[in-house]
Amino acid sequence: MKTHSSTYWKNYFIQNASIKRVDWKLKPNLQESERNNILKSLQAWQLGETSEGEHLMRAAKQYSIAVNDAEYPDAVKLFIKEEQKHGNNLGKYLDLIEEPRIKKDWGDSIFRKIRYYNTNMELWTIAVITVESAAQIFYQALKDATNCNLMKQICTDILIDEAAHITFQKERLYIIFSQKNAVLKFLAYHAYTCFFLCTSLVVWHAHKKLFKAGNVSFSRYFNKMKFKLNKVAGKSILYPQKKQQEIQLLELNRSPF
Ligand SMILES: [Fe+2]
Ligand SMILES: [Fe+2]
């Protein structure tokens, strides 16, 4: 898999931060039924996107020393800044519709505990990939669950950012994975899958009302998550040599000689 340098990612984040995609002159326009469907999830994700990221920064710094990549923490810092922008935008929206920004949520508390004890870059990376994959479905559902143009613009902006976040993290997971021996690769591959799918179920449970309001049923959600898992941590991604060998074997079998 092609991976980019930390300098590339730093430049990407700096350039992306200069693009403003939300027109704050728009007034929110939310129906009562829409408010009822989205509010709890909107408040929970606003809180989730607001983290200071100090534990992630600590893990990134330790990791960068181990792999001798001095610019990696700078890229992670800019990545965290982009997540905080999402939290700020969702918070601004809550202020405009005169709803409170919450301070506590059970899902957020679990993730904060995990984050607190986690100093391992690999665990961070798979955790972030999982949450961001769910975020892509979540923000699309949020966008579809309302006719408010301001909300739609906020979601579109986040969706554009999240697509790059997943690539950023997917590349890191691949780099970490490729340095393992065969046994550890086998264990890690299954651990990623298990963590990703279990966390997906927790996210569904917490936000099913919003997903359904955005026309995402459980089977649609779970199929999308499995598809995303395959794209970020599937066999063809993590074991590209194996895929190459399979293609060569297939071509050999097809050959008349
Ligand atoms: Fe985000
Ligand atoms: Fe993100």
UniProtKB/TrEMBL annotation:
Positions of transmembrane segments: 186-204
Source organism: Pedobacter rhodius
UniProt entry keywords in alphabetical sequence: Membrane, Transmembrane, Transmembrane helix
Protein name: Ferritin-like domain-containing protein
The keyword Membrane belongs to this UniProt entry's keyword annotation: yes
CDD domains attached to this UniProt entry: Ferritin_like
